[in-house]
Every structure is written in structure tokens, then in C-alpha cells.
Amino acid sequence: MCGIVGAVAQRNIVPVLVEGLRRLEYRGYDSCGVAVLGAEGPRRVRGTERVADLDAQTQEMHFEGVTGISHTRWATHGAPTIDNAHPIFSNNALAIVHNGIIENYESLRDALRAKGYQFASQTDTEVIAHLIHSLYRGDLFAAVQGAVRELHGAYAIAVIHKDQPHTVVGARAGSPLVVGYGKGENFLASDALAVAGNTDRFAYLEEGDVCEITLDGVRIADRDGHAAQRAVHAVQAYGGAVELGPYRHYMQKEIFEQPRAIGDTIPAADPFGADLFGANAREVFDGIDSLLILACGTSYYAGLTAKYWIESIAKIRTDVEIASEYRYRDSVPNPRSLVVTISQSGETADTIAALKHAQSLGMKHTLAVCNVATSAMVQLTELKFLTHAGREIGVASTKAFTTQLVALFILAVTLGKLRGHVSDAQEAEYQKLLRHLPAALNGVLALEPQIIAWADEFARKENALFLGRGLHYPIALEGALKLKEISYIHAEAYPAGELKHGPLALVTEAMPVVTVAPNDALLEKLKSNMQEVRARGGKLYVFADADSHIVSDDGIQVIRMPEHYGLLSPILHVVPLQLLAYHTACKRGTDVDKPRNLAKSVTVE
Ligand code: F6R
């Protein structure tokens, strides 16, 4: 979602501030802006176009400065207009950029209005700007400390003030902020990626921290106002990871990176050792009697797939809940349940809140399956398993999903082994399947030309149904989500047995029905469901595998997967669905990597 960059240097830092925004673009935004300190106070350039336009504007205007902040905004309070774009000013004295949501902004705004402050935007951010201004007595750091004490909600901010040249003050709670230590210059950013290359030394601020960067130093205070030190980590520049290479879009690149990402996620030595999840994992795993999986979106579908694996391999009861629902409903907590959160970013506000909610209900055994080692979620859980998808830039998740599946399969087998439900022979078989996955995926990726031919037909449709059964029902859900989010075609997924309980009414010649049909125990049932569609004139697009014995005919087209992959088949079957969504979106000319209204990291509720 929103992105923050701040810098203090002895050179013109506008190119750094704008380049930082360009690197954060993938997170999703609908306006952007940059402010620097001038002799008369802060000056800014804002726009509702792309960062490239902001860059062109700043160059044309010779907009320069040595102290500044910049921002990409994903609208929450107030439409994506220039007036609501950050940086937001207070009385032409200070400028602020903000990520997050201030929940008590209305009462603060009323109080500030009563003091004579006028509001030029509809943002909650302007409340923070005026609040800091009202508390400023010649010390920006102290004013920010005072202001954040009054804020309820989530924030990461960066602030500059006309009377404090060469100073940027930042603060965070609930939204990430890092300090970059340079030589004679220092940086702030919501993600180290933004300023990587200018420095490779970063400190991750903790909840409630306030910090000040100047030319030659960094000052940090914790939430109680005490001076604090935060460990400085060497973080490699990410430049290479964001190169597009020969691909048209990051999504395409990331789909094709899956064999590598999965290979990197499978541990080199024993892939089913409990200690992969943490030093005390064995003890925790021995003490649990159920699992509660919490996640959102694509990560939730990974959780749904895991339920099939864990209940069948490890024989442990597993519930899967959408994080945004779980956090607000009355549930019956089970202290012997292992709470598993799944997240690509590790910053998803609903998943973090659901995790904290479970912890507050006395569920102390927690595990994060996450792709970002430094994320808030990973800091919050007792156990962790890091996926190694590498940075995912396309908003639509692909390689993060398949690496999550790998992690969850490893969890299922590890638990099954500990409970004596996995024999040595089965373990060896699972290990073989895992090790061969990258090669099997390459075989699936080679189907791209056939899928492009289908995409031609899908690009002309406005609706699609996706069917799967058992383990492949969550894969149908994920296929439908991919298609709708990047091609804007309305798509729904059903477990195929549900068809006749309602959705069959939608089936006509105009309705493409994508069917995930591997040769598993439910294949014959699925074939009957497919006949129900054909009998109503529906057009079936079937992903079968080598042994499914389904052939192309009138009203049915088949793409055959190179091999049948048993329990790990969902990991292979999702890939052609990703490619179908991708190529359909390309043909419809949508902004594949940055679909409308969506953001990569959903750090607000
Ligand atoms: C869809 C997609 C989203 C995310 C969801 C959770 O392609 O990417 O549905 O899966 O926003 O995000 P994470 O996994 O970062 O918690």
C-alpha cells in the first residue's frame, strides 16, 4: 500500500526520493508526491498520475533540495485527488507523509478546529500535521513524540519543519519504518528496498519508536520516551531482484520463477524435521490437538489446501478462517490449538490483528508461514517457517502462493511423522515428490502456448466459472481470484458437487467453465459434474493430467498436464490457472502488475 521515503543529505535528494517511490510503486497507489525544505518553508509537487509523471514534473521544474520526504498514497480517507495527496502541510511550516489509518481522527480534528486550524484535505493525515504543529515549541522530535501519544490506530510518518533544516523526524506503530545509515547522509523508508543502493545498513524501528535523522546521526526513542538502540543490519541492495529481464510483466516473471522459488523453499537436508519451524517446535507440536489457520485472500486459499493435507496426512483437526472475520467474531478458543498465520508480506493488517486476537484469547502456540523475514508477523509468533519466493512485485500473488503450499505440505508431513502416521516409505515418497517439483513445474510452464490460445477466447468473456473437487477446490478458488483481479472478468469457483445446488442456473453457451481435473479419487464424480455442464450447452476448459482419460470433443477442450502428481498436484495445477489469468489480462490490456483499486501489501483494515 502507501510508501514513504525520507532523506537528509548534502546533495540534491529529489532523485533519491522519487526513485524510492518508483521502487515502491508495485505495492499499489493512486497518487504520489514529494516535498523538500526551502528557505521559505516546505515546497511540494503532487500528482494523481504515475511516479514517472512526478519525476518528469520535478525535473522540468528543477525541483531540488537537501532535506525531503516523498510518498505514494493508496486512498483510504478521501478520494485520490491532488488535495489529498501527501505530503500534507500544516500552516506552510511543516510537511508530513503518513501510512496507516488514524482511528480517532474525527475527535482530534474537532479539537484542532476549535483551536483555529483549517483543513485543506479530507485525510486523517492532516490531523497529525496540525497536531504536531500545535505542539511544536522549537523541537520537532518532542512535538512528534507528543503527537503520537494522542493517536489511536496505525501509522508510519515522516515529518520536516521549516525551522529545522537537515532534519527528518519519523515515528511508527502498526506500519513499518526503517532507518538507512549512509555516509554523511541518512534515510527513512517504509521498506529498505526504497533506498537500497544509497546505503546497505538498516535499522528496523520498533512499535512506538520515534526517530530523528540528521546529516551525521540518528536518534531513536522508544514508546516511553527513553533513548533506544536498534540493531543495524546489513541488507543487500535489491536492484537485481526488481529487474524485469525478458518478461513483459513482473507477474509473468514471477510465474516463471516458481521452479527456483520452490527449490529454494525446500530445505536442503531433512525436509520434515520439526526444528525447521523453530528450536522448540517439537515440544509445541507434541502438545497441540488442532490447528487454526488465519489468512487473507490467496494466502487463505493456501490455508484451505493445507487443511486437506493436514487432516489426511497428520490426522489433526484443522480449521481455516478468513482473518478479517475471525478477529471480530465470538469464537471458542482452544489453548491447545496451534495458530498458523500465512502471509506473503507479513504486514497484512487483518492477519496480524487476527493473530493478536487469538493470542489475547490465550492461544499461545503460534506459527507464521511468511515470505519476509523482517516483517511484523514473523516477530510476533513463537514458531516460523520462511518461504523463499524472493520479492514478489506483481500485485497478484503467484510464487508466494506456491511456496506457501510447499511450506504447508512440509508442515503436514512433519506433524504426521511426529504422530506416527507417516511410514518411512511414505516419507521417502513425499521427499521424492518434493525434490522433483521444480522439474515438474518446468513441464507445466511449457504449456504456455496452449494456454495463450484459450486466453484469446476468455478475453471476450465477462463471466467464468471454476470447478474443482477435494484438494483442488481451493485451487479453483485461487484460479477464479487470479482471473478477476487482473482481467476484471467476473469469476466464481465452486466445489463441482455444488453445481446443481444453484450455480448450474448460470450455465449457458456463453459461460466458460474451467475445470481442474487431475486423476484423483474424485475424478469419476467430477466427470459426472462435467456432463451436467455439457448437457446445458456450457463450454468446458479442462486441465486434466496424464491419466485422467478426458479428451477434447464438442463443448470440451482439454489441456493435459505432463504428469500426475498425487498429493502435491495442487501446486502444479494452479500454474496453468495463473497463466490463463495472466494472458487473458494481457489481451484485455489491463495494468497486469498494478490492477485497479488493489495494493500489494494491505496494511490497513
Ligand atoms: C491476491 C493476493 C491477495 C493476498 C492477500 C494477503 O493475488 O495477493 O489476496 O494474498 O492480500 O496478503 P498477504 O499474503 O501478504 O498476507
UniProtKB/TrEMBL annotation:
UniProt cross-references to Pfam families, sorted A to Z: GATase_6, SIS
Q: Which residues form the SIS domain?
A: 281-421, 454-595
- Compartments, record wording: Cytoplasm
Q: Which GO terms describe its biological process?
A: amino sugar biosynthetic process; carbohydrate metabolic process; fructose 6-phosphate metabolic process; protein N-linked glycosylation; UDP-N-acetylglucosamine metabolic process
Tell me which CDD domains the record gives: GFAT, SIS_GlmS_GlmD_1, SIS_GlmS_GlmD_2
InterPro entries for this protein? GATase_2_dom, GFAT, GFAT_N, GlmS/AgaS_SIS, GlmS/FrlB_SIS, Ntn_hydrolases_N, SIS_dom, SIS_dom_sf
Task: Give the SUPFAM superfamilies listed for this entry.
Answer: N-terminal nucleophile aminohydrolases (Ntn hydrolases), SIS domain
Q: Which GO terms describe its molecular function?
A: carbohydrate derivative binding; glutamine-fructose-6-phosphate transaminase (isomerizing) activity
Q: Mind listing the UniProt keywords for this protein, alphabetically?
A: Aminotransferase, Cytoplasm, Glutamine amidotransferase, Repeat, Transferase
Subunit structure, as described in the record: Homodimer.
This protein is called Glutamine--fructose-6-phosphate aminotransferase [isomerizing]
Q: Which organism is it from?
A: Paraburkholderia caballeronis
